[in-house]
Amino acid sequence: MIKFIIKRMLIAIPTMLTIIFLVFLLVHATPGNPFQGERALSPEVIKQLLHQYRLDLPLWKQFILYVNDLLHGDFGLSYKFLGQSINALIFPDYVGGFWVTLRLAVYAMIFTVPLGIVFGCYAGLYRNSWFDRLVVTCNMFFSAVPTIVTGPLFVFILAVLLHVLPASGWGDGDFKHIFLPVFVLTLAYAPTVAFVTRGSIIDVLNSNFIRTARAKGLPTKSIIFKHAIKPTLIPVVSLLGPMFAGVLVGAIVTEQVFALPGLGILTTNGATNRDYNLVLGITIFGSFLTIVFNFMVDILYFFLDPKIKQ
Fold it and tell me: Which residues have a Cβ under 8 Å from the Cβ of 274 and sit 6 or more positions away?
């Protein structure tokens, strides 16, 4: 297992460098510079700013210096919020940035994973029942309908019509403010977890070792909880790593709908204001999280499937 971990770490390093290189090129391929905005600046001021942020250097030198900063844990300075570091924007001391998105993602996954697994197992055990058809239909519906539609819909119902929850804002992160975005994210991801679990448990129950267990006369509960549940969870676990990273970094629409001060707002501001370092920092951090969560999923495989250990 130690060899496997070392091998995956060695693969992750060039993968991360490739991502940094490609994102760096794409961001700097944007026409113009981040200081060309509505407020006209003199050529002398623009030249000074370009020199201050190393944008007057050749692109290859900028890349080497940027990678060197990353190795020291520094995402650089913001072009929009002059003098403020990207680290302070992504990881602020006050409420906001990554801490809001992390809390939102953790709460969403706390509800998404158990509900998806339970509903998926029940749908797989009672295949072709009305509940099974409901799980399949919900997966198709919520996979096709994005949160930019479901979010305002539930805001209209629960906030505008019924007046039971606030329409937007973070507040103090209390239940009333966080319920709607967590509910919308759970609806977006739980049906997918349920559908994957359903298909997995159907395959497992049709496998040879389950037939052998049934032939021995083992009770159904023992077959499910002692023999079927572990291999059933393998495809689900492989889904959860990228899903959690996706909720963390990709909650741009949800945070925009509910006006949450998370990474989504920062990403939008960085893109519209040509804040190269902010876009680079959030993208690279998101890629790093995806690699880390996939790495953790691969390690969990060792405990779920003995065949992988070979």
Answer: 30, 32, 33, 34, 79
Annotated domain spans of the chain: 1-97+274-310, 107-260
Distance CA 173, CA 227 (A): 41
Helix (H, G, I), strand (E, B) or coil at 160: helix
Tokens for 5?
């971990």
Instruction: Give the CATH fold of the 107-260 domain.
Output: MetI-like fold (1.10.3720)
- Residue 280, pLDDT > 80, answer yes
Nearest Cα residue to 50 out of 10, 87, 79: 79
Distance CA 175, CA 167 (A): 13
What DSSP designation does 274 have?
A: T
Range name among 82-96, 166-180, 184-198, 247-261 with the lowest pLDDT average: 247-261
Please give the distance of CA 293 from its chain centroid, rounded to a whole number. Answer: 10
Q: For residue 32, what pLDDT band results from cuts at 50, 70 and 90?
A: low
